[in-house]
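Quick one:
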Amino acid sequence: SSGINAEYGNPEYLNYLAQHNYFKEEEFANYLKYLLYWKDPKYAKFLKYPQCLQLLELLQEPRFRDELINVPCTRFIQSQQMQHWSHHFRRRANLVNNSTVKKEGEDKQEQKVEPQA
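Output:
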């Protein structure tokens, strides 16, 4: 599973494949279709970088594969990934912080409640 994660989630690797004409080969296009089995939840749950599934879906389109030879296209994809990750981790940190503050508040409330006689 690490292969599909590391490879097809990496725009620089996709640019390398485009520059070396892998995407022009029918066999390689068929291989990309074959890899779509990873979208099945019973396999997808093992992916460390699920964004590779979105890129794998885009790789089914010849026009997208053709564009990957352009470094600006690759850099744009990378910047979009970085923005997504930044937003995701910031949002996750906020959720964790909010749940910690809420839990601390609940703990203080429990301490204030005196047992009834």
